[in-house]
Amino acid sequence: MKLRSLLFVPADSERKFAKADGIGADALILDLEDSVAPGRKAFARGAVKDLLGGGPRNWSFLVRINPFGTGLTLEDLAAVVRPGLDGLLIPKVNGIEDVDLVSHYVDVLEVATGIPPGDVKLLVVATETPAAMIGFNGYARKNERLVAMTWGAEDLSAALGALTNKEADGNWTFPYQVARAQCLFAAGAAGVAALDTLYADFRDQDGLAESCRLARRDGFVGRVAIHPAQVATINTCFTPSDADLAHARRVVAAFAAAPDVGTVGIDGKMYDIPHLVAARRTLASVGEGHSNG
C-alpha cells in the first residue's frame, strides 16, 4: 500500500468525493468522524457502502471510523468492513490495545463478508489522548494489520487544556514536538510507515513543501492532506528524486560487489550498513529492490 499522500474526504459529501477521485492521492480517507455532523452519521455510512461497491480505482480506499467511547464504532465497522475496503484509520487510540480490539472485530467481519483474512489494514492516529502519550512502548509488540501511524495535535491540546499548540513563528510548542517524535519512534518500533500530520493552511504551498522536506528528513514517508490542492506537493516531496535513486543504487551496488565487508567507500565518503538499509528503503519506496537490512 503506497502511502505518500492520504486525502481526507467527508463521507457524506458526494461532491467532495467526486473532486477527490482522480486527484492523484495514494489513498482517500472517507471520514465518518470529525467532518460528519452527528445527525449525518447514518447517511455517511450508507454513502461509504455505496462507494465501496464502485469500479476499479488507482488509490487505496480507507475509512476513518468514530473512536471508542462514542458508541458509534461498532456501527461504523459493521457498515464499512466489506469487499472494496483497503483499510481503517482509527482515531483517538489510547494504545496498542485499541488496535488489537479493532483487529479482532475485523477478523469476524472479514469472515462474515467474504473478505480474505487479513486484507483490511489498520492505521492509527496515535497521539490524540494523554493516555496515548504514555503507552507508546506497546507498539513494539506489533499487530499484523497495522501498516501506518500518524499523529495529531488538536485533540491532544484540547484534552490538556492548552491555550495553543503553536509558537508565534508557527512551529509546534514543545509538548507537540514530543508527540511528533513519539509517533515517529513508535512507528519505527512497530515496523510501519510514519505519516506526518496535516498542514492546516492549504493555500501555503511553499510552507507545505518546507514542512514536508523536514518531515522526510526526519523519517516520515508520507502525509495526511486536508485539501486536494495539497496532494501534488506532498507526492513530489515524498518521492525520491532521480539523484536520490541514483545514489541509492550506487550504495546497494557497492555493498553487493563486496559482500564480506561492513563498510564501503564511494567518492571519498565511507558508508556502512545503516546507509545500505536507507538506500534499500529508498529504492523500495518506488518498487525497486527491497527494504530489508
UniProtKB/TrEMBL annotation:
GO terms for biological process: oxaloacetate metabolic process. Coiled coil: none annotated. Its cofactor is Mg(2+). Substrate binds at residues 64, 128. Keywords: Lyase, Magnesium, Metal-binding. One of its GO terms (molecular function) is magnesium ion binding. Residues 4-228 form the HpcH/HpaI aldolase/citrate lyase domain. Mg(2+) binds at residues 128, 155. InterPro entries: Aldolase/citrate-lyase_domain, Citrate_lyase_beta/mcl1/mcl2, Pyrv/PenolPyrv_kinase-like_dom, Pyrv_kinase-like_dom_sf. PANTHER family: HPCH_HPAI ALDOLASE_CITRATE LYASE DOMAIN-CONTAINING PROTEIN, LYASE BETA SUBUNIT, PUTATIVE (AFU_ORTHOLOGUE AFUA_4G13030)-RELATED. Belongs to the HpcH/HpaI aldolase family. This is CoA ester lyase.
